[in-house]
Amino acid sequence: MSLRVGVVVAVDIGAARMKVAYADADGVVQLVRFERELWLPSGVQVEPDGSLLTGAAAMRRARQRPEGYIADPMGRLTADTVEAGGVVVQTADLVAALLRVALAGAVHAAGSPVGVVRVVTAGAWGPRRRGALRTALQRAGAADAELVAAPVAVGWHLLAGGADLPEQAIVTVCDLGAGFTASVLARTGDGFEALAGVEASDGGGDAMDAAVAAWLSPPTSPDGVVSAAAAAEAVVSARLAKEALSAAPTVLVPGASGQVVFGVPQLRQAGAAVLDRAVAAVVQAIEAADVGREHLGLLVCVGGGARSPVVADAFADAVGVRPVTVPQPDAAAVLGAVQQPVPIEDGVPVPSGRDAAGAVLAAAGSVALFGQFMSGTQRYGPLRSIQEGWLLANWSGLCLAAVLAVVATAAGASWLHMARYAMLPETPPDERLGRRLYGVALAASAVVGLGVCVGYAVIAVGSFEVPAGPLLRWSVLAATPVAAAVVVAGLLVIARPLLVQRSWQAWFRFPVTVVVLAGVGGYLIGYDVTDSPHVLRLFDWWLQQYITEPRQPIGPVGRLGAACLGVAVALLIARRGWIRVLTAVPLALLTATVLAWRSTGLITAVFGAVVAGWWLWRILAAVGGAALQVPAPSAADRPPAAAAGAAAGFGAAWAPPPPAKPQSGAGTAERGW
To answer: Where is the region Disordered (predicted)?
Structure first.
């Protein structure tokens, strides 16, 4: 089932920083790294000849020519043109320059072409700014990009993080950035509906920085006038001190009369008016949405100021719901824009040949390996005797047959789940019911796979009349880690909604290439150990014409099979193509070299452990995104001794920042509370 072509890329151009996220071929969401940072300054430098510079090059040039620096192009979309250093440039061209850098960075990071582009916008944007952004996207070569409102993107980020948001659930999103925006959303069957939104430009991070700077009283010149450099330095110091209070109860900052101890109580006092305006915007948004406070669900804080210690108590007192945060609140919108599902054609998942091939090939490989085990095993000792017999067997073949049996049943559960939509086209799809049914089927498939392993052992016990212990150990015990991981995956599917833009079936689709390599590799090793089947003798003779080595128990055919298993392991542990190549060659050589008569079972057991690790990695990658966190009690409630120690430790390392130029410094620090 293919839901998209290429990677999904999301761009969030804020007032100070631009963040870019993408979902790679496996559906794993990551932020794009620009040099050493996970963000890029959102300013653009306009040169005298009309050329545009972005990123670090723009910041360096802005120090020499600050009059040509445009700090916030997205904030100027209401104007068609803007003048910078005597040069008039269209605002759409400024935004297009940033978008081109964002898309190029995503392509370089993902190593794949861009399939879907999404751009985060403010929830209150009207047709004028959206139309100007459409023009910029067209000039950047992404005319078909989707525009996603920031609060809606945060809603998808919550769902991908495991938040239980049933239909009609109410979510209040508080965006604490340069300004402040409160939005109220309702969960619908296929997404989110914005019920109300209130902006308070004087209730955000910029206003808080100014309030803190005024409270610190920047030094004045002898004539009583505050210089521009001193005012800019005071704002930067206030911002740094405010952000530092997210991790320490108190800090030392430069004030009018030297170093000043600045803590959470001082922050609450300095920004009381700003915080009141933000709280009023939240209350107004809830009232405008016409939602009773008893029906409020989550109240989520995102943006650069979500971790501020003065936010949680103020919102909880005003609304009655304590806010929650996500691990990366400043990137919640851009991550959520990527995690929003890509619609499936016709509204239902369609089974593809890859899904069927995975189940059929794994089942065929498992049966073939078990058949080779049975035909190549020799029993020693009299039948129906008091004395137990013993087997000279290819235990690696039985082990690999058991592992592939569990893989086959898991793949079959995925294919059958999607095939039911094709068999019952008149049945409308229900995402929650379908997801839970698939989770149950996936967990049950692991039990069925273990049942097949038990059947293998029972057949061998009845055929050879030997104790069941060794046979169960190499079949059921070898496949148990894989089966346990599949059961955990099924429980995860039951508990969580649709993951990013991929379906759960696609997320847990086991690589077909690995199944083929493992089956072929195990079969070749089994031939060298048991001389079965005889049809491979011609291939063995042909291979020996090119590979000459002293006569050993393991010949060229078995070593070729071990190399296939090494390549299969490389495909499971590495995701990028060039890393797979670099990993596959040494692993193939290593397994082919160390393969011996007594190590065949160990090598296949290691492969089974890697298969279980692949399932566990998919599980951890799914749950490691955006777990909700309730803010801890504010730092003001900590013991005085701990607060004093933190203040001393941070103050010893504090150094006043250098004077900043107002023209070029706007994009150098994250604007948030």
So the answer is: 653-673
